Structures are given as C-alpha cells and as structure tokens.
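Loading example: each entry is read as two labelled lines plus one structure line.
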Amino acid sequence: MAMADGKRLNDEELEKLLAEAGREAPLPSGQLLERIMADAEAVAARAEAPAPPSVPPAARHGGRAGRLLAALGGWPALAGLATAAVAGVWLGLAPPPGLEAISRGAQLPLGGGDYGVEEFMPSLDDMLTEG
Amino acid sequence: MEMPLDALNDASDEALLVAFGNGDRAAARALTLRLTPRVLGYAARLLGDRAEAEDVTQEAMLRLWRMAGQWRQGEARVTTWLYRVVTNLCTDRLRRRRGVGLDSIEEPADDAASAEDGLARAQRLAALQEALMRLPARQRQAVVLRHVEGLSNPEIAAVMEVSVEAVESLTARGKRGLAKALAGRREELGYGDG
C-alpha cells in the first residue's frame, strides 16, 4: 500500500470509503413511500378514468336553447346560419341587377313568353351608374 | 390483472413497470419498495441534503409512473432511466441553489451515532460527503454512480449521455479531487497517519 503522498488516500482506500457510503445509504421514511405510492395510485386512476364524451361545448350549457344549439352543430354552425340569413335579407332589400330577370324566368312556364338571353347581362348603363 | 406475490419479487423492473402501465397496483408497490432506496441514496449523495433528496425522489418516481403506459420492454433499463432523471433534477436544484455555502450541507443522520463505532463511521461519511460536494457536479455524478452505486462505465455513459471515455476521465479526475479534499483528514477517516 505504498503512497506517493503520505497524507493522501490511495485509490483502494478511497474506493473502500465510497463503497461504505453505498452500504450506508439513507433509508426512505414511511411517509415518503406512502407519498410515492399515492402518486402511483393517482396516475393509475387517471389512466383508467373514462374519456370525456365529445359533445359540442354548447350542449354542456343544458336547457332547450343549449340542446337546439348542439343539434345544429354548436356555435360555428350557428354563425354560418346567421350569415346566410343576413345575406338573404340583403338580397331581398337590394337585389343586384339581373337577379329579377332570373327569378322571373324561373317562374315562367318552359319555352314561354318574352324571355331573352340578353336579360341575363347587366346593361352597360348599370355599370356606368354604379361606378 | 395483478401478479402473484412470488412473481412480483422475481419480475424485472421493466416487467413490473409494464404491469403497472396496465393497471397493476401491486407492481407499483413492489417497484416503490425496490427502487426508492436507490433513488434516494443517489439523490442524497448528489445534493447533500436529505429533504431535497426526498423531493427529488418523489418527483422522479412520479415521472416513472407517468411514463409507465408508454414503456416498451427492451428499450432501456428502468434504473438507467431513473438515474438519468435524478441526475437532471439534482443538476437543476444545484443550479438554483448556487450561492448557498457548504456550511448548510446536512451531515448524514446515523441511528447508531451513540456508539463509538457508529460515531466514527458517521464522521467518516460526513467527511466524504463534504469532499464530494466540493467536486464539480459532473465529476461527483460519475464517482457516485461508479463507486457508490456500483454501475459499470457503459451504464454510467448511458445515464450521463456521454462516451465511456468521458466517464473514465470524469471518474479519474473526481477521485483525484476527492483524495486532495480528504488529504490531512486520514485520522478522521480511520486510516491513521499513513
């Protein structure tokens, strides 16, 4: 057990000391073990919990209005419906040129009357006045 | 779905973890009893503080439970994975702790401290712990994994995510540092005057 430096531990002594530290490892307390097992139980319980049903959020509000909203497909679908309704009202109040001709044509019996192709074309005058 | 008691004792860590991933609570209990002492011991050596080591141990085990469902047998060893998680958690804590003096490092408790032999042992281990805390973190990890935990160099390389050569170098430098830090304390360590 020759040592280059009398005051220093040699490799063998040092490794013996470290191995002793390994044998003297602190024992976990009962509380720590309980906390760890409680964590395991919580993780296992979460994994086993049934997945939440995939209902549109609107249905969760309950009530008749909520169910109707859910039946329509939730808020996104309702927004689409609202847009379509507003567009319908707008067309009724201020129909673009030519639309009247189409709707009149749709009401005519087949092959009937004074219905001409040129009526589908907006006239140049309309273009000019609309800027 | 639960394993019989005999099978629990014989089963590998990996098999137990997969069983827990399938809902087997007894497997979690067996893993807790088997792994917690090792995890706590390693964390305590790296941190030099029992309370912090307990927190790290609980956090590391929680991460193990959370990943049980995705564990694939044969991919890695549970202990290697755990040592890596503990190493990283301790590194984070030590970084946050920077500036705290060595005086705050707890001396390891020893139940047999009243007996003379126990006292001498407690002093020896306290001196060693103090010297370990003076090493750079990576050297301390390598020395503890090799000589306290008894891992092989390839295992340590997997834990520390470095090459085997780097592990050898870290261990050698760490041991030189320890010998230097413990020089002049031979008597305290029970080795006489040399």
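DSSP finds nine helices and no strands in chain B.
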